[in-house]
Amino acid sequence: MAIRPVVIAGEPVLHERARAVEVIDDEVRELVRDMFETMDAARGVGLAAPQVGVGLRIFTWQLANEDRIPPRGVVVNPYLTSSKPVVGDPDPHDEVEGCLSVPGESFPLRRGEQATLTGTDLAGEEIRYEATGWFARMLQHEYDHLNGFLYVDRLSGKWARKARKTVKGNGWGVPGQSWMPGVDRDPFGHDDDTPEEERAD
To answer: Is 66 annotated in the active site?
Structure first.
């Protein structure tokens, strides 16, 4: 296993639709092991393969929930449907997201309160989960990664303007930038006591 660098907004793989996994082989299994190790080192709640520079339709998660979904898992070739977000501006305190590929930043974004995930596990067995709340938000966030979207692409109004200014101010938006979990300073200031819902994905 190995921790992999997390690529930052502007890296082309983050802005392209990821490819379907055709065969779950040793290379895919090694990628997933590395993704878990990277996610843990970054203290994230989710990680999509494009975030470690691999354009495949896979993501991992580590998030407790009340939906009877395994708190730690992986999905290959997922399909996600979600409820429509409630109309209105997002709450700047209770609906804030962060992303390991937009390190150290967070912005309010309204998501659907429910989501249904289907796909397969590493053994090729079909999975189906019905999620609500923060787990549903995490699933939508990771699924967006597989379709070439970052959460900042979904912001609107003043939050979209602030995000664009932040990306430009940090010198992001161009290829070739990354950070190394467990080596570089944690951009979100996570520690072992940081609640899961306040961690980035």
So the answer is: no
3-state secondary structure (DSSP) of residue 39: helix
With tokens 């379907």, the residue in question is: 20
Selecting among 37, 142, 196, 198, the annotated active-site residue is 142
Run means of pLDDT, 10 residues per run, the chain, 201 residues:
95 98 98 98 97 98 96 98 95 95 97 98 97 97 98 96 96 97 90 64 78
User: How high is the pLDDT of residue 170?
Assistant: 95
The DSSP annotation for 10-35 comes to T-GGGGSPPBPP----HHHHHHHHHH
The CA distance from 5 to 96, in Å, is 24
| Residues forming a β-bridge with 97 | 107
* 96 backbone φψ class: left, alpha, beta (φ>0; ψ -120 to 50): beta
Question: With the C-alpha atoms ordered 150, 157, 198, 83, is the resulting torsion angle positive or negative?
Answer: negative
Pairing assessment for the beta strands 6-7 and 46-48 based on DSSP bridges:
unpaired
56-70 burial, b for 16+ CB within 10 Å, e for fewer? bbbbbbbbebeeebe
Q: What is the rounded end-to-end Cα distance, in angstroms, of the chain? A: 20
The residue among 190, 197, 193 whose CA lies nearest residue 42 is 190
pTM attached to this predicted model: 0.94
**Residue 176, pLDDT score:** 97
Q: Residue 198: what pLDDT? A: 62
